[in-house]
Amino acid sequence: MSASRQLRVALVSLGCPKNLIDSEKILALLAEGGCIVAAPMDHADVIVVNTCGFLEAARQESLEVIGEALAHKRAGRAQRVVVAGCLVNRDAEELYKLAPGIDAIVGVNNRRQILQAVTAKRRVTRTDPYSGGICSDAGRFRLTPRHTAYLRISEGCDRQCSFCTIPAIRGPFRSKQLKAIVAEARELIADGAVELNVIGQDTTAYGRDLGVKGALASLLRRLDRLDGVRWIRLMYAYPRPFDDALIEAIASTPHVVAYIDLPLQHISGPILRRMKRGITRAGIEKLLVKIRRRIPGAAIRTTFIVGFPGESDAQFTELLGFIREFEFDALGVFEFSPEPGTTAAELPRQIPDDVKAARARALMAQQQQIAFAANSASVGRPIEVLVDGIDTQGRCVGRYYAQAPDIDGVCYLSEPRPPGTFVTGKIVGWEDYDLLVRPK
């Protein structure tokens, strides 16, 4: 038996669902190469850290986990530490200086070289730039529960938002072919997935590079016809162009749930222009009203950035008022992070950290009032829940269509049900952002 077939590999996956898919593919490639995968870190011969480098906070988290892996190596428990993912593309060979002891780095465009990085007896550096196309995600070693999966339809981004590092890290936007996406979806369904969460850096742009008009709407309709899928959820949708054909596709397809993840980032016109979002307040408001009018029960999740350079008290108050008026179903907030290489990092009138933190707290306090009022009003209503399993406190946990995995609230069922099953019941109470459900 070769050395590679004896290696036990631990993988730590950080960051977003796009990165999780990369981790699942990395594990599959290592397993195909004869490695024993999914070992605990303290029992591994090789530790792979698939990093996030989107924001400075994520970068620091990645470096902390790398440091933990290197401590295992220094203690003689691991032979090699391999760093993969977005932080590699962001910091490249600087990583060897930031975290001495790393044996190999593998960028996001080089995941097929992961086996070489794990099994080599020397330093391996693969940080090749984007060279065209998009890799298949078929044949993954899935880390999500069997009944739910992420389905990537595109890679990279062509938007030039002034605060964002994604184009520099992930490269230009490119779509998967429809045939490849459908084949991957069928594979996931055959593996037990009844919920498919459609993702990409910019899902709204799907098909633009293929010259196909209305490609995302057509894709959703095609996925909706697959046998075995119950829920299809659209994530990471850019607000422009979110057109009528897409709205109609979501409204009319029985398995595409009425959930839209639509990061807006701000509402003030001057801030939107400095962010280079390519949309106005009026355009945002028109789109949101149209979605709620045309898609019954539409749950809209969004994210906002507070403390963008030059954000005045009046502009933040405008954002706060907009959130209060529209009442989003779910909302996240980021404090602006001046990322190296972005134009926003060089803008004048940077906001002090304490002001950014205070604005983030105020915004989330406003959203908390909205969410708690909505939960209170929902008591007594019927609900359908997809059961995820039992949590660490022994409670049966699930989600309804307006709750995406890992980022939204959950439903707690008063009686246990098997994971992956759909249960109808009634909302009997709530705890913070979560619902209490009594199954029928």
Ordered list of secondary-structure elements with their pairings:
Elements: H1 3-6, E1 8-13, H2 17-32, E2 36-37, E3 46-51, H3 56-74, E4 80-85, H4 86-91, H5 94-98, E5 104-106, H6 114-119, E6 124-126, E7 148-152, E8 154-155, H7 166-170, E9 174-175, H8 178-190, E10 195-199, H9 215-224, E11 231-234, H10 244-252, E12 256-261, H11 269-275, H12 281-294, E13 299-306, H13 313-326, E14 330-335, H14 353-378, E15 382-390, E16 396-399, E17 411-413, E18 422-431, E19 434-439
Parallel strand pairs: 1-2, 1-3, 3-4, 4-5, 5-6, 7-10, 10-11, 11-12, 12-13, 13-14, 17-19
Antiparallel strand pairs: 8-9, 15-16, 15-18, 16-17, 18-19
Helix pairs in contact: 9-10, 13-14
Question: Describe it for me?
Answer:
With 440 residues, the chain is α/β, with parallel strands linked by helices. The chain has three domains: 3-126, Rossmann fold (3-Layer(aba) Sandwich); 148-378, tm_1862 like domain (pyruvate-formate lyase- activating enzyme, Alpha-Beta Horseshoe), CATH 3.80.30.20; 382-439, Beta Barrel (OB fold (Dihydrolipoamide Acetyltransferase, E2P)), CATH 2.40.50.140. Helix content is 35%, strand content 22%. The protein has 14 helices and 19 strands. The chain has helices at 3-6, 17-32, 56-74, 86-91, 94-98, 114-119, 166-170, 178-190, 215-224, 244-252, 269-275, 281-294, 313-326, 353-378; strands at 8-13, 36-37, 46-51, 80-85, 104-106, 124-126, 148-152, 154-155, 174-175, 195-199, 231-234, 256-261, 299-306, 330-335, 382-390, 396-399, 411-413, 422-431, 434-439. The strands form four sheets. Strands 2-1-3-4-5-6 form a six-stranded parallel β-sheet, sandwiched between helices. A hairpin with a 2-residue loop joins strand 18 and strand 19 (434-439). The protein starts with a helix and ends with a strand. The model is unreliable at 1-5 (pLDDT under 50).
